[in-house]
Amino acid sequence: MATNVGFGCDEKSLEDSLCKRVIVTRGEAITKHLDPAAAAISRDALAKTVYSRLFDWIVKKINDTIGQDPGSKYLIGVLDIYGFESFKTNSILPRSTHKTFAEKLYQTFSSHKRFKKPKFSQTDFTICHYAGDVTYQSEFFLDKNKDYVIGEHQDLMSASRSPFVSGLFPPLPVQSSNKSKFSSIGSRFKQQLQSLLETLSATEPHYVRCIKPNNLLKPGIFENKNALHQLQCGGVMEAIRISRAGFPTRKTFDEFKTRFRLLEPDILGGRYDEVTACKKLLEKTGLKGYQVGKTKVFLRAGQMAELDAHLTELLGKSAIIIQSKFRSYHAHRDFTRLRFCVIPFQTYCRRQVARQRYETAKRLVQSAINIQAGIRGMSARLNFRTRKQTKAAKMQVNTCNDIGVFSYLQVAKGTGPPQAASAKIKLEPKSNLEPKSKLDPKSNLEPKSKLEQEVEELTGQLQLEKRMRVTHSLNHK
Length: 477
Prior knowledge:
Elements: H1 2-7, H2 11-19, E1 20-25, E2 28-33, H3 36-66, H4 98-109, E3 115-116, E4 124-129, E5 132-137, H5 141-145, H6 151-158, H7 163-168, H8 185-202, H9 224-233, H10 236-245, E6 249-252, H11 253-260, H12 274-285, E7 291-292, E8 296-299, H13 303-413, H14 418-427, H15 441-476
Antiparallel strand pairs: 1-2, 3-4, 4-5, 6-8, 7-8
Helix pairs in contact: 11-12, 13-15
Domain Myosin motor: 1-316
Family: Belongs to the TRAFAC class myosin-kinesin ATPase superfamily. Myosin family.
Region (Actin-binding): 193-215
């Protein structure tokens, strides 16, 4: 039920196409009912046909999406010709019976080193490919070689209600009975293989070989044995062996010179032709075993990698030198710019520092002047005060001396004022205060000698005080 819904067709029509066959003869059509085994084969044939049409549709969609330009020189193709060595049964062979074909092979290739006959089978044969030994079975090759679209299946799918399904099965072109010819699987495979060989011969293919890492279809798992088997079957190991035995690297003179000209600077001036330039390059690198042909340079396995290593080393050293020069240039440029900016800044800073120092020194000098002026003023005032006091003391001493002398003279003459008499009286002792009518000369001389003595004492004290003040002033200075 689900099958006819997916195909977009009637359930009865699907059943008839799987279980019945219409045999068309001259003038009539006979419907034949298939047995269960034949019906199962018909079912499998329909499934295989649908799968083939879906695969072709996917390939066409991918090509249309990629948008390959018909006039482009380059193309990308998927070539799947490997995997037959993993089949349990290989039996797609040309037309013949399986027994007669096997017998012809035994008779023709019995002595060939690439052909083997199994011991326990009369219809099998083994081909020793460079990828490995593959055993083919010719028993069922006729059934596989009759692979064609059954008419009932074609009519059923073309009449589908689904546009997608009907598009997969377009109507077949009408062919006349005289020109109709059966196209077998073997013939179509031969035609496809011939077309593939013509395409490969007309192009310069670059292969990207895909290796299946494991049969579990899981990431992160790598089966070494399976991968090595694929490399052997794909011819990679044999290609590597052949490549290493010969000259795997072949470069034209122009390509070789253009790629490795940096290894020999002498050829950069254009003084040598291409052949001479290539020879000088090879001599400079010290390679051995190479060959210089008429148009190309032939290198042994690994020599191209050695040349690339020399070139990489030279480019690395050159890059270091270029980087050093570039950094030096940038550093010098930055230093010049910095110096151009720093010199005015330094000038300004020095000017500010000098101005600050000048202001500080000016303040210090002014302070020193003020301090010195204050000290000189204090010293002058002290000196003035000292001189004033000394002068006053001298004046006092002189005044006292004059007063004493004057008083003494007045007393001596007897015409002194009452104050002198009173002073005289005070100077006399109490015992002498009693009145006397007459004084003797000795009693008049005693006050005079005492007064002179007092004047001398006062004069000595003044001189002593003056000397002390002068000494104190000198010590202070």
